[in-house]
Design brief:
This protein is an all-alpha fold. Helix content is 69%, strand content 0%. The protein has helices at 12-27, 30-36, 42-54, 61-76, 80-94, 104-124, 129-141, 146-151, 162-176. It is globular and about 40 Å long. This is Immunity protein.
Length: 177
């Protein structure tokens, strides 16, 4: 396992697969946000930008700005489920900017969209743990090869982060197995 200061190998193909996966995870909960704020398109635009990058688009300032805009939408969301759905969208667009550093923090960038989507669904379902388990299972089964490959080059997910951090650690462990 590399030390936190070492760089890891990270190809553009892997970045694209991770961004596409993150966008797919976030899209599952986009309706939660849009039901709350139907006129706010920032999370949808972030997900679309992540999908465009995954399909071969360039990493542009507009892609990075869409991640920040979705993050801002999360701060302005009317409900906790909507906020986590917007955070999932923000993580999806930000996944294109994963750093080639052997840092446990990078695990949150790889799995953040999936974890926030799971939390959004959990909150929207009145904390029905069966819903959460299904969401995390979906995320585990739909992870492309790049996700466990890159996770294998990183230290394990860090402690903390509340329920979302718990989801990140659960997914990290499952995808490394």
């Amino acid at each position: 396992m590399p030390s936190e200061s070492q760089e890891i190998e990270l190809s553009e193909h892997e970045l694209r697969e991770i961004a596409g996966y993150a966008a797919d995870c976030a899209r599952r909960t986009l309706s939660i946000f849009e039901q709350s704020l139907p006129a706010d398109t920032r999370p949808r635009e972030a997900i679309d930008a992540a999908h465009a990058f995954a399909a071969g688009g360039r990493r542009t300032a507009a892609l990075r700005q869409s991640a920040w805009a979705a993050y801002k939408a999360a701060q302005e969301a009317a409900s906790p489920p909507a906020a986590d759905a917007a955070r999932a969208a923000s993580h999806a667009a930000a996944a294109a900017y994963l750093h080639p550093k052997a840092s446990a923090h990078q695990v949150k960038h790889v799995l953040g969209a999936a974890a926030h989507a799971a939390r959004a669904e959990e909150l929207a379902s009145a904390e029905d743990r069966r819903v959460t388990a299904g969401t995390l299972e979906w995320a585990r089964h739909h992870a492309p090869a790049a996700v466990p490959a890159v996770l294998g080059r990183l230290p394990a997910a860090p402690p903390g982060g509340g329920r979302v951090g718990e989801f990140i650690r659960d997914l990290d462990a499952a995808l490394r197995a």
